Amino acid sequence: MPTYREAHRRSIEDPESFWGEQARRIHWETPFEQVLDRSNPPFARWFVGGKTNLCYNAIDRHLAARARQNALVYVSTETGIERRYTYAELHAEVNRMAAVMRSLGVTQGERVLIYLPMIPEALFAMLACARLGAIHSVVFGGFAAPSLAARIDDATPVLIVTADAGARAGRVIDYTPLVDEALARATHKVPKVLLIDRQLAPERLQAPYLVAYEPLRERFFDAHVPCVWLESNQPSYVLYTSGTTGKPKGVQRDVGGYAVALAASMEHIFQGKPGDTMWTASDVGWVVGHSYIIYAPLIAGLTTVMYEGTPIRPDGGIWWRIIEQHRINLMFTAPTALRVLKKQDPKLMEQADLSSLRTLFLAGEPLDEPTAQWIQSALKKPVVDNYWQTETGWPMIAIPRGIEALSPKLGSPGVPSMGFALTVRNEATGEICAPGEKGVIALDYPLPPGCMQTVWGDDSRFIKTYWNSVPGQQLYSTFDWGVTDEDGYVSILGRTDDVINVAGHRLGTREIEEAISSHRAVAEVAVVGVADSVKGQVALAFVVLRDAQALDKAGAREALEAELARSVDAHLGAIARPARVHFLATLPKTRSGKLLRRAIAALAEGRDPGDLPMIEDAGALVQVKEALAR
Ligand code: ATP
Ligand code: MG
Question: What angle do CA 400, 255, 127 make, to 5 degrees?
Answer without folding.
Answer: 100
